[in-house]
Design brief:
This protein is of the alpha+beta class. It has helices at residues 30-46, 65-78, 97-115, 127-139, 142-145, 175-185, 201-208, 211-246, 267-282, 290-302, 364-369, 379-387, 429-439, and strands at residues 22-25, 52-58, 82-87, 120-122, 157-160, 164-167, 247-251, 254-257, 305-309, 312-317, 320-325, 341-342, 346-350, 357-361, 390-394, 411-415, 423-425. The protein binds adenosine-5'-triphosphate. Residues 25-27, 31-32, 55-57, 59, 102, 105, 123-125, 129 line the site of adenosine-5'-triphosphate (ATP).
Length: 455
């Protein structure tokens, strides 16, 4: 699996479709600098007309970051590679800084890619990063909480914002091999001082994996990640088939599960499917935890119930098992911007009147007045689901004419698959696609990979 041969670029990129170009995310560290040069070699050989843009984000978080960005710019100028430096200018939170920096970084990389008509971002994550990630997750016991999904590590490709692919071609390559390559090329790199700071969990893990002593642990961690990735992909495929067979959507915001799901003899996949659907209905980016999903599934097997999990009301009655967003905690009436995600569940497209609109939950009173229920779905459930859908009010004047959802002229709301809307690892493509089909979300863009890693 680990490639340490002299011509690293062979085989690293041949499974990736670069026909729409690529943005290379280059921090100036060894991994991403090597990524850039290897990719350039590959494209020169195989697709010289493909667009390549190197992008460096200056997070403005430590001294020297702007100098590092300038060093990358110089390297790019020498090698005839287009380069952009982008600064993270937003407010920096006092807690959760690394996560906020990562979020901002991907937003900036995606906007640079879109500006050039590129839909693919490549990063320099290595086998070392993968092993560290997996072992840190195992030490934190994330595995028991989520059935080992996280132990699959980083996916070879991840869809960002349901639009831009992030591809990690170096996940099978050791950092040492990349550094040897750079030395042979006589190209230097920047060392991030935080990588030496033992206060960070990742630094300590890196030290534990160093040298001969760490080599076996590293290989074991990578083998574990590969096994877990296979398991996660298979389980996702089974869950997708269950969703296609047993789930339907009688109305926007209302999912019906055929109770036959409970006796389908595929409990593990059914629990997974249930967790994905709960997060989708509730507009939550994370799946409810495994133990709660299993407990709910066991209760459903025992008979009719009404329960709430992941902001979703689960209502099992004679007509079926119904999932809908609970009314509690819906967003208050507020102006919104075009393209914003409302309540984690609906992407809002504003029409002309944008500025004057407040988006608000449709509400139980308004839902009550509408004629609903032409099929066997209980009208009370249709109304309850409708009440939690977005409606609109006129912002400036007094409350405007009665909201006329779902044919409002003010805005359109299209469903998003909440747990996968921001980041969709390629392991989870099958359930994401199944849920998108179920709720009418935009279809997934094609995966830019060929071969087994295409999932
Ligand atoms: N400042 C930056 N500018 C451009 N790309 C960057 C920058 N920082 C990191 N990257 C990209 O992300 C890859 C991983 O970097 P690193 O491991 O430092 O970040 P991370 O926060 O762990 O990443 P991630 O959040 O993507 O897991 C790099 O190889 C590079 O491709």
């Amino acid at each position: 699996m680990l490639d340490t041969g002299p011509d690293l670029s062979t085989g690293l990129f041949s499974h990736i479709d670069f026909s729409n170009g690529a943005v290379a995310a280059v921090s100036g560290g060894s991994d991403s600098t090597a990524l850039l040069l290897l990719l350039k070699q590959h494209l020169d050989k195989t697709a010289p007309s493909a667009k390549l843009l190197a992008v460096t984000i200056d997070h403005g978080l430590r001294q020297g970051s702007a100098d590092e960005a300038r060093t990358v710019a110089k390297l790019c100028a020498d090698r005839d590679i287009a380069h952009r430096m982008l600064a993270w200018s937003g407010a920096k939170p006092s807690t959760g800084l690394p996560a906020a920096a990562r979020e901002a970084r991907y937003q900036l990389l995606a906007s640079a890619a879109r500006a050039e008509g590129i839909g693919l971002i490549v990063t320099g994550h290595t086998a070392d990063d993968q092993a560290e990630t997996v072992l840190m997750r195992r030490d934190r016991n994330d595995a028991t909480r989520d059935e080992g999904r996280g132990l699959a590590g980083m996916a070879p490709a991840t869809l960002h914002d349901w639009r831009d692919w992030i591809v990690r071609p170096l996940l099978g390559v050791r950092r040492d091999a990349l550094r040897d390559f750079l030395r042979r090329q006589q190209v230097g790199w920047a060392e991030d001082p935080t990588n030496a700071d033992e206060a960070f969990e990742r630094t300590r893990m890196r030290a534990a994996l160093a040298g001969e002593a760490g080599a076996q642990r590293m290989n074991d961690a990578l083998a574990l990640a590969a096994r877990q990735a296979g398991d996660r992909t298979r389980l996702g495929g089974e869950a997708a088939r269950l969703i296609e067979r047993f789930a339907s959507q009688p109305a926007a915001g209302l999912i019906r599960l055929d109770p036959a799901l409970l006796g389908a003899g595929a409990d593990r996949a059914a629990v997974y499917a249930l967790r994905v659907l709960l997060a989708t209905s509730g507009g939550i980016a994370f799946l409810p935890d495994q133990a709660r999903g299993e407990a709910l599934f066991a209760r459903l097997k025992a008979g009719f119930l009404c329960a709430t999990l992941s902001r979703t009301v689960v209502d099992f009655r004679r007509a079926g098992i119904f999932l809908r967003r609970e009314m509690r905690g819906l967003p208050a009436a507020a102006a919104t911007i075009d393209g914003a995600i409302w309540d984690g569940r609906r992407q809002i497209t504003l029409n002309d009147a944008g500025g004057a609109l407040l988006i608000a939950p449709f509400g139980a009173m308004a839902a009550k007045r509408l004629a609903v229920g032409r099929d066997e779905t209980p009208p009370s459930l249709l109304r309850a689901a409708l009440a939690a859908e977005p409606g609109w009010l006129q912002a400036v004047e007094k409350v405007g004419p009665e909201p006329d959802w779902p044919t409002s002229q003010g805005f359109a709301a299209s469903p998003v698959v909440a747990p996968f809307a921001r980041f969709l690892p390629s392991f989870d493509l099958a359930p994401a696609r199944a849920v998108a089909g179920l709720i009418g979300a935009a279809p997934l863009p094609a995966l830019p990979l060929r071969g087994p890693s295409a999932g």
